[in-house]
């Protein structure tokens, strides 16, 4: 019973992260499952199946709060499901250790760009509303779905930063659309894994426990992403990408850094991330203060004009 409660808390924590930042459900839940002593193979299988329910709940919550662009969901989700099914069915036995560091470098570059741009400049508005085309979203979905199923996660870490970097979709809708489309990827990947390796080793009680925690967290995360300022949200997402992929690189065969070296990097990243978030929050508050007097000043004359005829 104690383990089931812990699993439910794992699902809650992982969905709060994923639903708020558009990524890292797989990374967060698998890491926490391993931390409580779960077998690595069972953890991976359990997470993929639990994602079917959590992504459905997350997508519904994001839709309710107006965080979903259905055109983006269709354009990226369909090719993503194809990539996820293919990767799970035909390539689940292929080691991705060599490709992992390369992908980590790409994502680390994107994460650094997002952190710097959103922290220093805020959200780019000159391209907001411009359509995201199939020739961009199609290949992106295919690659992200493939990476997600063969690498044990990657739909959010690949899709979210790429769309954010385009500057065409505001952060909350980027996160909501990625989370919603992930339902298709979770279903396709799960079907592929069942066909490829069967359901051996999967504890469906654990799946249910993770799902319950995720269902509780989904609406909370969707509400958070709607109310967090885009500038702050972008800084938060950038930090998650940098930290996650730095960890991947330091643990890869390319570097294989010692624990002491890793923690030096982690402390440095946490310090930079905290400073970036602090700066973003302060800039956002300063911009709100600057805008308020203009709004009040503009409304006073109108109010006076409207009041004059009534007095006569």
Structure notes:
The protein is mainly alpha-helical and 312 residues long. The chain has one domain. Helices cover 82% and strands 0% of the residues. The radius of gyration is 21 Å and the shape is globular. The N and C termini lie far apart (75 Å). The model is unreliable at 294-312 (pLDDT under 50).
The share of residues in helices is: over 70%
Secondary structure tally: strands = 0
Globally, the shape reads globular
Mean pLDDT: 79
- The total of helices stands at 11
**Radius of gyration, rounded?**
21 Å
What class do helices, strands and sheet pairing give? mainly alpha
Strand content: under 5%
Number of domains: 1
The helix/strand order is HHHHHHHHHHH
Task: Give me the oligomer status.
Answer: single chain
How far do the termini sit from each other?
A: 75 Å
Outline the low-pLDDT stretches: 294-312
Report on the biggest sheet.
none
Task: Please summarize what this structure is.
The protein has 312 residues and is mainly alpha-helical. It is built from 11 helices and no strands.
Brief descriptors of the model:
about 80% helix, about 300 residues
